[in-house]
Amino acid sequence: MKVLAAMSGGVDSAVAAARAAEVGYDVTGVHLALSRNPQTYRSGARGCCTLEDARDARRAADVIGIPFYVWDMADRFHEDVVDDFVAEYAAGRTPNPCLRCNEKIKFAAVLDRALALGFDAVVTGHHARKGTDGLLRRSVDLGKDQSYVLAVLTREQLDHSIFPLGDSTKAEVRAEAARRGLSVADKPDSHDICFIADGDTRGFLHERLGATPGDIVDAETGEVLGAHEGAYAYTIGQRRGLDLRRPAPDGRPRYVLSITPVTNTVTVGPAEALEVSRVSGERPVWTAGPLPAGEVECEVQLRAHGEPVPATVRVDADGLVASLHRPVRGVAAGQAVVAYRPDPAGDVVLGSATIATTERAGVPA
Fold it and tell me: Which residues are annotated as catalytic?
C-alpha cells in the first residue's frame, strides 16, 4: 500500500510516519509549506509551519529512511484558513483554524493531490483512532484527543486516512521517538494559532480589519457600560479585557453574551445568561452512515477542549440541531458541534456541523 505521510516537523507526525513504514507501507513523507513568509510564523517552543519545522521533518524522514518532499500550499492555506479566520471574526463568530485546516488543506487539497499521484491514503500524527468499521473514534489519550478537529472529514476522506497514534499516549509517543533516534522526541508541542507570530490575535485582526469603535452594552438594562475598538476582538464568554467604564448596575461581573456586527455592538451580561440549551449547526457532515431518520441520543462536544454533554440530536441535509440535557456556558458560533456515541472501545464520532445559532432556555442567543 502506497501512503503519503504528512510530516509537520513535530514528534507526532514523525512517529506516525515511522510506524507506517515499519508495518510495511510504501511511505513517502511530505511537509506542507503553508506560510508565504515562514519567518513570520511561530518558532521554537511555540512553533508550527516554520522553516525550523521543515528542517525537522526532513531530518526525521532521513532517519526513517523514506523519500521526502515539500509541497507549497501557502496560497491555498492563506485563502482557505487565514482569510476565513479574519472573515469569521468580522462576522461576529469565533472560528477554529485548526479544524478548517484539516477540512480544507490536509484532508482536501493534500488528499486530493495524493490520490491523483497514485497514493492510497494519507498518514497523519493526529491523536485519534479509526476502528475496523472505518469510523472515527477518540484517542486513548483523552488529554490529547483530536477527534473533535477531525470530525469535519467525510466518510470518503476517512476511508483514505490512517491515524497510527490513536492507541498510544503522548508520553508513549515521545518515548518511542527517542528509541528510534528521532531528534524531535523532546520537541515541545505547538500552541495557539500558527499564523499569528506573536500570539496577539486582537492585534492581528486589528491590522487587517482596522479600528471600528462601538459600544459595550448591558443586556438587561441597555445601558452603555463601555466602548471597544472593534467587536471582532471579543468572543462569547469573555470576561477579561472588556475595559468597562462603569460597573454593571448590580455590581456583578459581566461576560460577553453576543456580538452584533451590523450595529457594531458587544452585549454583556451575568454569567448565568451564557447558559445555552439548544445549538443549531450548518454544513453538517455525518460520517457514521446514512443520515438518521429521527432523533439520536448521544453526547456532543462544543469546543476543542470542552466536556461532552448528553444531548438529543436531529440532523438532515440542511443542518443539525442539538438539544442539550443540561445547559452549557460560553458556546460560540463558528465553533463545531460534534456528536459522539459513547462506546467502551472509544467514543465514536457520529458527525459534526458548524455552530450557527444558540438558544438560552428557548430564547435565541
Answer: 101, 194
Predicted local confidence at residue 114, as pLDDT: 95
Q: Report the DSSP pairing between strands 363-364 and 121-123.
A: unpaired
- The residue type found at 314 is R
Average pLDDT over residues 19-36: 94
Q: Answer whether 352's CB lies under 8 Å from 334's CB.
A: no
H, E, C per residue of the chain: CEEEEECCCCHHHHHHHHHHHHCCCEEEEEEEECCCCHHHCCCHHHCCCCHHHHHHHHHHHHHHCCCEEEEECHHHHHHHHHHHHHHHHHCCCCCCHHHHHHHHHHHHHHHHHHHHCCCCEEECCCCEEECCCCCEEECCCCCCCCHHHHCCCCHHHHHCEECCCCCCCHHHHHHHHHHCCCHHHHCCCCCCCCCCCCCCHHHHHHHHHCCCCEEEEECCCCCEEEEECCHHHCCCCCCCCCCECCCCCCCCCCEEEEEECCCCEEEEECHHHHEEEEEEEEEEEECCCCCCCCCEEEEEECCCCCCCEEEEEEEECCEEEEEEEEEEECCCCCCEEEEEECCCCCCEEEEEEEEEEEEECCEEC
pLDDT per position as a tens digit, 53-93: 899 999 999 999 999 999 999 999 999 999 999 999 999 99
pLDDT of residue 192: 67
User: How far is the C-alpha of 307 from the C-alpha of 302, rounded, in Å?
Assistant: 8
Structure confidence by residue, pLDDT tens digits, 176-210: 999 999 999 999 887 668 888 777 888 999 999 99
The single-letter code of the amino acid at 156 is: E
pLDDT of residue 39: 55
